[in-house]
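Quick one, probably user error.
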């Protein structure tokens, strides 16, 4: 995966992402949750979204596979951000919502169904999950990171492979970071089958 890149470039990545405006995606996600719901921010990066969820009154647990990013996210959010990789997730039916913004895209395509099934199991039945991937097809290496890109069709195939998930919404969007507006994203909101 790409944790080494984030350990080596944590300061720059934090500066580039900590204040990106993800309010529209967060709004869609929290509208599907009850007030005070338990949210897992899986691959939280800078902690930007975990902080927004906590400030909105949700009970937040966050983790990141990069020790350096987890350290910076802890300082940024005031939360104890856990240093975990996706394959270390063992929660079962512990969260009402799961947020994985631009994190699962670093998992090789062959490993995604297993990783996502592990995360799905962390949700209560009926729990909602927001995830995003860069728009494209196939896998690539760029700047020391692995990317699994999806388009609408391959995103639907992946959700079917994981099983136990119902797609509530699938949208295509643009990157919100300055200078990156030409980069496309696939955003999925799914629900764990009850």
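Nope, works fine. Designed sequence:
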């Amino acid at each position: 995966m790409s944790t080494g890149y984030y350990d080596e470039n944590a300061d720059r990545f934090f500066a580039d992402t900590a204040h990106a405006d993800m309010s529209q995606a967060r709004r869609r996600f929290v509208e599907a949750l009850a007030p005070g719901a338990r949210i897992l921010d899986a691959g939280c990066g800078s902690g930007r979204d975990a902080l927004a969820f906590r400030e909105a009154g949700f009970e937040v647990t966050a983790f990141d596979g990069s020790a350096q990013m987890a350290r910076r996210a802890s300082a940024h959010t005031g939360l104890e951000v856990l240093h975990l990789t996706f394959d270390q997730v063992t929660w079962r039916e512990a969260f009402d919502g799961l947020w994985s913004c631009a994190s699962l895209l670093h998992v090789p395509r062959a490993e995604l169904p297993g990783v996502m099934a592990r995360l799905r199991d962390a949700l209560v039945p009926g729990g909602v999950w927001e995830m995003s991937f860069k728009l494209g097809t196939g896998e690539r290496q760029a700047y020391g990171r692995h990317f699994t890109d999806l388009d609408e069709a391959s995103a639907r195939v992946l959700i079917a492979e994981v099983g136990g998930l119902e797609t509530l919404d699938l949208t295509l969007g643009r990157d919100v970071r300055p200078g990156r507006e030409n980069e496309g994203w696939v955003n999925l909101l799914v629900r764990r089958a009850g």
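The helical segments are 3-8, 10-17, 23-30, 48-55, 67-77, 112-122, 152-162.
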